[in-house]
Design brief:
It is a single chain. With 426 residues, the chain is mainly beta. Helix content is 14%, strand content 41%. It folds into three domains: 151 residues, Cathepsin D, subunit A, domain 1, CATH 2.40.70; 141 residues, Acid Proteases (Cathepsin D, subunit A, domain 1, Beta Barrel), CATH 2.40.70.10; 79 residues, Roll (Pdz3 Domain), CATH 2.30.42. The strands form four sheets. Strands 14, 15, 16, 17, 18, 19, 20, 21, 22 and 23 form a ten-stranded mixed β-sheet that branches. Strands 1, 3, 4, 5, 6, 7, 8, 9 and 10 form a nine-stranded mixed β-sheet that branches.
Amino acid sequence: MRCFATITISLLLSAVINASFAQTDHKELRIKHKKRNTSYIPFEMAHNLIIIPVMINDSDTLKFILDTGVTHTLLTDLNANDALTLQYSRKVDLFGLGKGDPIEALHSYGNELYMPGVYGNFHDLLVPLENVFFLSENLGKQVNGLMGYEVFNSFIVEIDYEKQKLALHDPNKYRGKLEKKKKKWLKRGSAVVIPLEIIRRKPYLSAAVTNNKGERTQTRLLVDSGASHALSLYSATNKTLEIPTPSFRSFLGMGLNGDIYGYTGKINSVELGDFSMPKPLVTFPDQEAVKEAINIGNRNGSLGSDVLRRFDVIIDYTGNQIIFKPNKDFNTEFTYNLSGIEIVTPFPGMPIFQIAEVREGSPGQEAGLLAGDQIMAINGSNIARYSMNNLIKLFHGKAGRKYRIYIHRNGEYFRTEFTLRDDLAQ
């Protein structure tokens, strides 16, 4: 099992997925109660990602990542306790990021789908026959799949990251209220409206980035709510999108068709309309791994949830627009894992944490930690006291913090320690 680095899990989740069957664009989802115009859905968050409750046919409640980068609903993982009956299916090929061959999946159609206050039928599902996602292991909780286009094409989607709540609005009935809200926000200068273009079921916008030489470039980015990182830029698409100094090379994640490597660094700024965010963390995947993504949508990269979560966001496919209103997290610093070790949970929901990757030259590697090590305690506290989110916060902490780690490896126990270090400090 391979992990997905916290800042780059999106490289998998924003995979370019092309199935060998016709795509339909009819709106499959609708508000269940005819007298209501909006359904409100609470969500969980992990690695900056939105996780929503979903039921399919006769299933219990499942958990899906809400991902604008996914063109069809993907059912990736069912545990032994999950019961689900799928409608007629056939095999198709899926293509995505990475250098390998496509993987086989089942295409199931004619399914019923339920979310709080929302119902849909004739719903397509793709079920990969090989688990290349490992969502539950990487997020530390049971996650069953990803969904995106069907939700965003059916509703005006309002995301409140602070309250962790979605509002799904009927586009035909909410349009007037949205225009009034937009006018009010724009008059106050508290929001920006950016045109959105939908190409092959994916949303694209224009954003300005400024590199560390002060060169400002207008870029075309995929809006990717299923990306935990801030930005991913493709250096081959424009000479100003060069890999910055300092940066470090690392394993960025496993794409649908293979491993993805590249560089991580910080650039001077990214701008969404009038709102500028300094020193965003940026991944620069190797060109070979993203060549298909470059060709589709003529894009320069993707805008992920570490940017999106800093705003109240309204995504309006039918109106071809996206609205950003800064929230209390707008000015928070962009951080990354300063330890260099990536953690997975072999048994999601249980406090068992294993090291899956160790970045070369990182404090974790210098401390002698290896992939496969099981963490038993940190600073004298039993690992059972921690969740995946707790560990992420620890390793995204301030440079200079020291951690004593108690490890189990191949039947033996030992202690080591490392100090968090910012290898991107200038």
